Amino acid sequence: MYKCKCCSHETLPVPPEDAVAYICPICWWENDVFTADDDEPSDENHGISLNRARKNYIAHGICDPRLKCKDDIHLSTFTPVDKILGDHMPFLVSLKENGENELHIVLSAAVVGENTPDMMEGLTAPVADVVSKYRPILPGNKTIDIRFDNYIMYQVRNESYASPDRTEGKHGKYLSVYAESKLLDYLETVTNVQRCDDGSTYPGPWRHYGIRTQNQTIDVVSHFEPMVTVNENESGEPK
Ligand SMILES: [Zn+2]
Fold first, then answer.
1. Which of 66, 94, 109 is the endpoint of a domain?
2. Number of neighbouring beta carbons within 10 Å of residue 166
3. DSSP code of 41?
4. Residue range of the domain that includes 183
5. One domain, residues 42 and 138
6. Cβ–Cβ < 8 Å for 99, 135
7. Are residues 94 and 25 in the same domain?
8. Of 68, 172, 192, 209, which has the highest C-beta tally within 10 A?
9. Are residues 119 and 143 part of one domain?
10. Are both 98 and 35 inside the same structural domain?
11. For residue 88, which of 134, 50, 121 has the smallest C-alpha distance?
12. Rounded distance from Cα 160 to ligand 1 centre (Å)
């Protein structure tokens, strides 16, 4: 393991110069390979420089104290499952409403498949040579079942048209929990949820959960933590 450049804990699986977009699970610094020096604001970390993040970590135990729900995020059922998904976006198997505002989402973890002869059919030799180097990404036999018992709102965007929200404080790669986001700002204009001056919230502390799949970008705002279960299906067919 290699040392995180912010908190110095050995949390990087690869050297820092190769750890593109890797988020340290201890200080939440997103390893930034694009900054020239430690005083340059890091786009990956909402404009905080590495030197600033180091000071923040010493003072607050986190690279950016704006990511206030750090402790909550640690408890989130989402983050551990995100690691199970590996390096490829999962596939959406189904998304449906069950009864009263219960949202049920099933994902299939992606696996790297084998090239099949029909992939090469009709291709000229140089093209076939290039294609042969790539492996198809397919839905695997591991499914992730996500159940929101009582959501406040959700949205589904076509992944091709979904624009990233640069303001968000995000943890997780494909399953994320956001400390802040434009969607959360918008929430209070289209629902009657409220954030009072004393910091209390109605109907309870809500969170923005993001799910990125091969073709869909799903956002759910809920004041209940979702139930997440991982199933391994022997047959190889997603349940
Ligand atoms: Zn760290």
1. 66
2. 9
3. P
4. 78-232
5. no
6. no
7. no
8. 209
9. yes
10. no
11. 134
12. 32
What is the model's pLDDT at position 170? 67
DSSP 88: S
Distance 210 CA to ligand 1 centre (A): 23
Instruction: Report CA(142)–ligand 1 centroid distance (Å).
Output: 30
Residue 170 maps to a domain: yes
The answer to whether residue 187 sits within a structural domain is yes
Residues 57 and 11 in one domain: yes
**Of the residues 66, 92, 108, the one at which a domain ends:** 66
Cβ neighbours, 10 Å, residue 106:
19
Amino acid identity of 220?
A: V
Instruction: Tell whether 237 is covered by a domain.
Output: no
Number of structural domains (the chain) is 2
Looking at 8-62, which runs of residues are DSSP E strands? 10-12
Q: What residues are paired with 170 via a beta bridge?
A: 178
pTM above 0.85, yes or no: no
Measured CA to CA, the distance from residue 194 to residue 59 in angstroms comes to 31
All residues with CB under 5 Å from ion ligand 1? 4, 6-7, 24, 26-27, 29
Query: How close is the Cα of 30 to the center of ligand 1, in Å?
Result: 8
d(CA 19, CA 4): 10
Q: Which residues of 1-39 are buried (b: 16+ CB within 10 A; e: fewer)?
A: ebebbbbeeebbeeeeeebeebbbebbbbbbbeebeeee
In a domain, 83, yes or no: yes
Is the same domain home to 53 and 91?
no
pLDDT along the chain (239 residues), means of 10: 91 88 82 93 89 87 68 59 87 94 95 82 84 86 91 95 78 80 89 79 82 95 85 60
Rounded to the nearest angstrom, the distance between the alpha carbon of 4 and the centre of ligand 1 is: 5
Q: What's the chain's Rg over C-alpha atoms?
A: 20
